[in-house]
Amino acid sequence: MNLHEKIRSFILSRLVEPETKTIGMEEECFLYTKNNRRLPVNPCGEFSATDLLTIMNENVGTNGIYTLEPGGQLEWSSPPYRDLNDLFSALEKHKQTLNGAVNANDLRVISYGVEPNYAPDDIDLINKLKYQLMNVNMEQNGTMGKWMMRNTTSVQVNFDITSERDLEDMTFVADCLQPVCAYFFANSPFRNGQPTGTENIRNVIWENTDNTRCRNLIDHGIGSPDGLIDRYIDYIMTVPGIFELDENGIIVATSKTIGERLVDLERSDKLRTEDIQTALHQIFTNVRLKHLVEVRGADRPPMGFEMAPVAFWTSILTVGTVRDELLSVVKNWTLEERHDFNKASLILDDSQIGPEGKSYEKWNQWVGDLALAGLKERCLGEEKFFDSFFEIVMEKGPFGLQAQ
């Protein structure tokens, strides 16, 4: 088995039966002190995000795991579930645990997708080599990496894979419909204490974070579902590495591309599964492949609507009738139409023209209606997680605009 096949084998290593396919979520938030300051990241003379992390993991039990993002944003990674009602119950348990820690330490949760008050230079970077290396890399390959690392939060959704075709269709549809996701879940009304207007600022930040490893798959030459997994592997091999694992599994700096590092390990018969996993985790496209499909394009929604992006993506990516209908349409979009649609998603104006000469608003309505139909088809009572959210956004605009 050659290197390409080993990477492919890892990505497809956890195939499941369709009836056992599960969904997981990762929810992030900012924390402020009672004095309306961003919670310090590293241990210091006052309560810090690092202290909060310790408390959260001491109380999480089997309800997922907590980690910190580079600027001290708290991330909860859920267990995977088949039924979104069970995932919602886990989310509520997480929020109860968080509220207990927040109240006990006079903190506030800020549920925006972009830090509303502070610039990146006002926020310490977490004291980990991985993030220090990432910080240097982002400065070299984009203009807004510091903003991404310290000043953004999101809800990400993870999906099991049932087959290679399932992976390729899910990934392609998610990449095509990133502009719809970016509009629906835009929730970043302020930056540096000022309104962001119609600028879809978290989407703008990610667009300008790192040209080699972020943005959409179409930006890296992956424009079709056919053979997508192989083109994805070819793509990641060209990306400059941020870090690598030494022989003891410790993160160290690297000067090689991801491909050069993996080739060297393969030739010396030292390639480990964790080396492939580390490589895949250094790609930050809006949809990316690990041993599952991870969709990353939504801002962190307002409190109480965290399940909306989960329900949206679950329907359009896992309900066969819905995904097939979407796929039959988006496969016919030209590359120019797709690039223009992605560019339109940087501005919160649904009167812009999208593919096939139809307005952004019409595409949002069509996709949202299909998402609701798919949730109803699942027959689990999950449409409640998206229907009111969808109605509000279509009537009043994204929550980020409403908050201004």
Largest sheet: 7 strands, antiparallel
Q: Roughly how many Å is the radius of gyration?
A: 20 Å
Rounded average pLDDT: 97
Termini separation (Å)?
Answer: 55 Å
Number of helices: 17
Beta-strand share of residues: 5-15%
The low-confidence runs, each spanning 5 or more residues with pLDDT under 50, are none
The tally of strands reads 11
Order of helices and strands: HEHEEHEHHEHHEEHHEEHHEEHHHHHH
Instruction: Indicate the structural class.
Output: alpha+beta
What percent of residues adopt helix (DSSP H or I)? 40-55%
> What is the overall shape?
globular
Q: What keywords describe this structure?
A:
12% strand, 7-stranded antiparallel β-sheet, 404 residues, alpha+beta, 11 strands, two-stranded antiparallel sheet
Q: How would you sum up this structure, described in words?
A:
The chain is α+β, with helices and mostly antiparallel strands. The chain is built from 17 helices and 11 strands. The chain has helices at 3-11, 49-59, 84-104, 129-141, 145-151, 164-176, 178-184, 201-207, 228-236, 258-267, 273-280, 308-318, 320-330, 335-344, 360-378, 387-396, 399-403, and strands spanning 23-33, 65-68, 74-77, 107-110, 154-159, 190-191, 194-195, 243-245, 251-253, 287-289, 293-299. Strands 1, 2, 3, 4, 5, 10 and 11 form a 7-stranded antiparallel β-sheet that branches. It has a two-stranded antiparallel ribbon with strand order 6-7. Strands 8-9 form a two-stranded antiparallel ribbon. β2 and β3 (74-77) form a beta hairpin. α6 packs across α12, α12 (308-318) crosses α13 (320-330) and α12 (308-318) crosses α15 (360-378). The termini are far apart. The relative contact order is 0.14. The mean pLDDT is 97.
